[in-house]
Design a protein that fits this description.
Blueprint lengths: L2 E5 L3 H12 L5 E4 L1 H9 L7 E4 L2 E4 H10 L3
Parallel strand pairs: 1-2
Antiparallel strand pairs: 1-3, 3-4
Helix pairs in contact: 1-3
Length: 71
């Protein structure tokens, strides 16, 4: 499973990153301008964006996915 967190270090980005770490989920972090470009190119309006095997999830959906991971 390939998991990538696209972040601009906003408060929601930090929450999602902390939850991923808390659950022991291994992920790649892409931040800064590269992350913002990725997010905007895919039609999303804000960070963070979590990509799981190519499925892009905005914050609310990503938090739900993390909370359900491994259950």
């Amino acid at each position: 499973m390939k998991i990538i967190l696209f972040s601009n270090n906003c408060p929601q980005c930090k929450v999602l990153e902390a939850k991923l770490k808390e659950k022991g989920i291994t992920f790649e972090l892409i931040d800064g301008e590269r992350a913002i470009e990725y997010i905007q190119e895919r039609g999303f309006m804000s960070a963070p964006l979590l990509s799981v095997d190519g499925e892009n999830m905005p914050f609310g959906k990503a938090i739900k996915w993390v909370n359900e991971y491994g259950n």
